[in-house]
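Incident review: delayed structure delivery

Summary: a single-chain prediction request sat in the queue longer than the usual turnaround. Root cause was a stuck worker, restarted by the on-call engineer. No data loss occurred. The affected request and its eventual output are reproduced below so the record is complete for anyone auditing the incident later.

Affected input:
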Amino acid sequence: MRRFIQISILTFCFCQELLGQTTYGTVADLEEQWRKYTSYQKDELTNFCDYLFDEGHFERCIIASFRYLFLYPEDPLTPNVYYKIARSYEEQGNFQLAKDYFFKVQNEVQPNSSEFRAARYRLIYLHLMEGDLDSISTMVGTTQDPYLLTLEGFARFNNLDFEAAKGRFDQARRIFESRDHRRNLTILMRACDNARKLPNIDPVQTGLFGIFPGGGRVYLQEWIPAAGTFLSTTGLGIQLFAGGSTAIAKWIPRLTLMGVYGGSIWGSIKGIEHANTQREIRYTKRVQERYGPTLFLDFPEPIDLGVR
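Output delivered after worker restart:
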């Protein structure tokens, strides 16, 4: 009886094995199973790229994204992968490579697509971060896009063209639907007005401060030239009072001292325009520490590859 049970079990297992083999009876069945397997691998890789980017592992995200492009070169997600690579380079501070891959995104999609627009916003933002302000107006052109108008406004603001900057901010404010954006743009418009009201340095006070060696430079907040002038005049004064045995030894320190002292006063007066410009630059930086362009980078981005 025991022998019979063992034989029955073996027979059943053998039949099951045969039935299992018939599941893959055709080439089409095998191809379908392989397609499902590779699709699973693809989803895993896209989700892995998203995870690496979200967690700030940008270098590894770039490597994983290149692997995806190698495995699926004709995939419809290629523009999105290029975009993720570009954003990863941007986060690493490699703006040139970031721009290269944003251009690749634009070459892969239609100009009216959301991917093209997002890449365009990012390209202009990178030019703004690099200080390439003059080219931004050309890149923006004639538009009613509030994001482009805002970015051009920041370019004008950093270029100290406060009247034009206020105009761009006002245009964008009228178009944006976001209440936060309208509020922030109103503040930026007010900052443009305040920048034009910044008190300029008084030439008379600069001259009066210049009576003290290096004082004019101190008034202009040019600390290194101020220190150099003070040390030079102090050293020459000591040498002058020490005296010398010849006329040359007496007059050279005197003439040098007069030249340094007079040059310091003249340089302070000539540096007023530069000092006023530097004051405006410091003001624009302070404003953008709180109301910078990153507040307006909330446009839709093709950044997620996988299905969440």
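Verification: Residues 95 and 130 are 8 Å apart (CA to CA).
Action items: add queue-age alerting; document worker restart procedure.
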